[in-house]
Amino acid sequence: MKSGDSTTIDVPEPSGVPKGKAHAVVTSTSQQRGGWKKGVAITDFVLRLGGIVAGLSAAATMGTSDQSLPFFTQFFQFEASYDDMPTFEFFLIAMSIVSGYLVLSLPFSIVAIVRPHAAGPRIFLLIMDIVALTLTTSAAAAAAAVVYLAHNGNSSSNWLAICNQFGDFCQKISGAVVAAFVTVVVFVFLILISALALRKH
Amino acid sequence: MKSGDSTTIDVPEPSGVPKGKAHAVVTSTSQQRGGWKKGVAITDFVLRLGGIVAGLSAAATMGTSDQSLPFFTQFFQFEASYDDMPTFEFFLIAMSIVSGYLVLSLPFSIVAIVRPHAAGPRIFLLIMDIVALTLTTSAAAAAAAVVYLAHNGNSSSNWLAICNQFGDFCQKISGAVVAAFVTVVVFVFLILISALALRKH
Q: Which PANTHER family match (chains A, B) (predicted)?
């Protein structure tokens, strides 16, 4: 009776311990996966902040690019500004829209931090990010093509380089294009992160 | 005892029927989801075929854009070609790379059709698609900016429109830009489909 009592005590113990262990393992793995998703959401938020800085500086640099030469004739003053070129106007508008979208997307990114497993805000952000990536890339590339022409000109179409006269203007628009390409890189990482966070876990 | 026996028979019956029903529902939903993923993979494949057509036609149109004017002087012949402009050379190279990538991505797309639940080829395609989208968009936008200048010129920088002289050349490069933007739209849908197919199911 003593040994029988000890066996009946022994039997539930080993079957109880693995159950407890298994439960603990499952819980910790689930928590790790939740933590991984939360880390991804925080990275998403930080990348968005960086994108806002890059996008706003691109828009501001382009918007303030304006140079007047110190000499002028009676009828004409030599001046270069972004609004002489439709491409640069498109650049300014596109970068303003993208920066505004990034600011408005911050609340959704915070929701993704608070609820790492909610798919709704993540899909919304992914779709909008793809649209914003396309807009930013097109603005940056179009401005880069015109900046290249401004620096080097083109002999076969008789387009002369204007950066000899407007050096400060050219430096500013070149800086704006670089900032826009930084924004493009930010969006590429944002889309990659969103897509991988949407994976089945 | 009679009523006790009937209750013990009644109890397992209602608990057994919902179990069988629940199992059948789970199986059919899982099959529906598998079929949904297969449909997405087939759409992916068809979109890639359309992207190849658009990308190759953009590259071919740009590569054959070449116009000589019917008059020439003793020292100079008036000719417009894509290789006068670095932007158009970049366009041709980028669209060739993108078309080649799309052809090489077809086997991975077929793997995704055969195995709709495999995440590996889908993640690979997603990453490469994002890179290809950025490349295509930048080529299309840069070429579009220069095509706009060729059509309209720019008065403040004294760049004259060249499309008055080279009408056929301008038509060809405009067509190439349109085809490139069609490729951009194809890539946007490809990325969206890949990301949604990666969702947890």
A: CASP-LIKE PROTEIN (PTHR36488:SF11), CASP-LIKE PROTEIN 1U1 (PTHR36488)
Report if residue A58 sits inside a domain: yes
Residue B161 lies in a domain: yes
Euclidean distance between CA atoms A16 and A14, whole angstroms: 5
CATH number at residue B174: 1.20.120
A184 contacts on B by Cβ (under 8 Å): 134
Domain count, chain A: 1
3-state secondary structure B104-126: HHHHHHHHHHHCCCCCHHHHHHH
**Of the candidates B94, B81, B178, the residue with the CA atom closest to the CA atom of residue B133:** B94
Q: A164 lies in which domain range?
A: 34-66+80-197
Judging contacts by C-beta atoms under 8 Å, the chain B residues touching residue A133 are: 130, 133-134, 137
Token pair belonging to B135? 């490349």
Chain A residues with CB inside 8 Å of B139's CB? 141
Instruction: Give me the pLDDT at residue B79, please.
Output: 75
Per-residue pLDDT reduced to its tens digit, B118-139: 888 888 898 899 999 999 999 9
DSSP per position, B3-70: HHHHHHHHTHHHHHHHHHHHHHHHHHHHHHHHHHHHHHHHHHHHHHHHHHHHHHHHHHHHHT-EEEEE
CB-based contact A141 B138, cutoff 8 Å: yes
Is residue B47 a part of any domain in this protein? yes
The shortest C-alpha distance from B6 to chain A (Å) reads 33
Query: Residue A25 forms beta bridges with which residues?
Result: none
Task: For residue range B140-175, list pLDDT tens digits in order.
Answer: 999 999 999 999 988 878 888 888 888 888 999 999
Which SS3 state, helix, strand or coil, does residue A132 take? helix
CB count within 10 Å of CB B108 equals 17
Give the type of residue at B43.
Answer: T
Question: B131, A188: Cβ pair inside 8 Å?
Answer: yes
Residues 6+ apart with CB under 8 A from B13: none
Question: Which amino acid is residue A153, in one-letter code?
Answer: G
Flag whether pLDDT at B15 surpasses 70: no
> Does residue A23 belong to any structural domain of this protein?
no
pTM > 0.80: no
Cβ within 8 Å, pair B142-A144: yes
- Provide ipTM, 2 decimals: 0.76
